[in-house]
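Subject: two folds for Thursday's group meeting

Dear M.,

Sorry for the delay on this. The cluster queue was jammed most of the week, so I only got both jobs back this morning. I'm pasting them in the order they finished. Each block is the input sequence followed by the predicted structure tokens. Could you check whether the formatting survives your parser before we put anything on slides? The first protein is the one we discussed after the seminar.
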Amino acid sequence: MAKDERVQVSWPTIGFESRPWTSGGDVVASRRALRAARGDYRAAVPPMIARVPVILSPDALAAADDASRELTRFDGEAGLVTAPFASILLRTESASSSEVENLTSSAKQVALAEIGESRSGNARLVLANVRAMKAALILSDRIDESAIIEMHEALLSDSAPHIIGRWRDEQVWIGGGSVSPHSATFVPPHHDRVQELMTDLVGFAERADVPVLALAAITHAQFETIHPFPDGNGRTGRALLQAMLRSGGVTRNATVPVSAGLLHDLDGYFRSLDAYRAGNPDAIVMAVAEAAFAAINNGRRLVADIRSASERWNGVVVARSDSSVHKLKEYLIGQPVVNVKTVAAALAVSEIAAAGSITRLEETGILTRTSGDARNRLWQATEILDALDAFAARARRARA
């Protein structure tokens, strides 16, 4: 038997079962669609994996080891740049994870949403994903069922509060339209199986006999297969991936934007999930490892751009070392769109002092007034916004 066949046989494949389907009486669709929605449908039956031996190919193990080492190295580099840089990486990971779900927003709109000034619905959803990522990192010391539900709550508490706080109690499906699951691309397990599967998933995530990145990748793939929530599974699943990297000690200082790496090859990412369900865990481990390499390369360019801007700012600003102007420069790296109120609150100074610091940086060209009336003017650090948008553009270019 060939080596790759032996690896595939070692991991259980998903099964399927027939389930009866009853369409709601208020469904509006064509006669053809309604006819297609009659009768039983097939839902996935994922295997229990908590105690299944994890046997990966030498190539997958080597890729996971190399990626883990590079993630830890980059995490250390990011920790030395500047304190607000961690928030930049968190935001880029959240934006990239949202973009996997076709939720796109510019860096400026996300920064505006952070201070309650954006009218973009997508920007507010990205900001919700930032909250989910933060929750994931906070909860990384206890990855259990309640922690996963809390990550999901942080993501959807504003936009879909009616579905948070519990596992789903309805059938969901991917692709094939909204009428029924009969023509779906993939139908996750029936909701009466979700509780048992999630208990098993948490048991798998706690294992110490699997390399951290491989453990995180397989947990992510199983989570996406279970699809335990009515919505937000992709973003919650990638937050869970970050939590496991933090829990396993691969990262400590920053959220390496692995989702930006996944954007390099979305089709490959989705194929790796299909391969995992067919019994090949190598595929998702390799996909996450390659995403990590891509994210690090892109992230290092972002670090260089931010560092270049920061050095230029230091060369044009002359002020006492304890001046709030210097504090504002550092704050702008993590929050590149500001108004007087947000600066005053962030720096713990009066609004008069905040306005004075803003004026100093506006005079040097670091800040540019963008919009807002006389009572609520807005300023932006264009160099930081450009660096963030360039990061996102590189991820998209690689995918095209």
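Second protein, same layout:
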Amino acid sequence: MKINRLTMAAIAASAAFAAATPAFAGSCPAGQSAHNPLAGAPTAPSNVTDDLIGSVDLAKEIGVADRDLRMRRLVVQPGGVVPVHSHAGRPALIVVVSGSITEYSSACAVGIDHKAGDISSESDGISHWWRNNGQMPAVLLSADVKARD
């Protein structure tokens, strides 16, 4: 896939931003780690855009068949939701570019707040969903390994 200059500039800017503020977040607050079945979690997206910036076929790069490394830009409007999903076999890193967002995780009894500059690591089969409880859009960059549909 050919990546245009604007996409490369966005990736470079994101990398520089992440390198400047290496705030790995997403940990459950002390004393709140617990199994959470996420009962009643939303199953459909709401007020969120999810745009693919670019992808790499991992079979061609490192011999991992039927998987892509992809970069996406999500904009979650106030009150918007990224529905419940699993990261079993699908690791990801999320950078909060602007705004804030709350994650509801299968491994935490309370919501986990993420602010601009935070990086969240998603792996180990975790299930979760996200809601923008703030007053402004939350802009996220997501890099993940995804099985081809």
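Two things I noticed about the second structure. Confidence is low (pLDDT under 50) at residues 6-23. The radius of gyration is 15 Å.

Cheers,
T.
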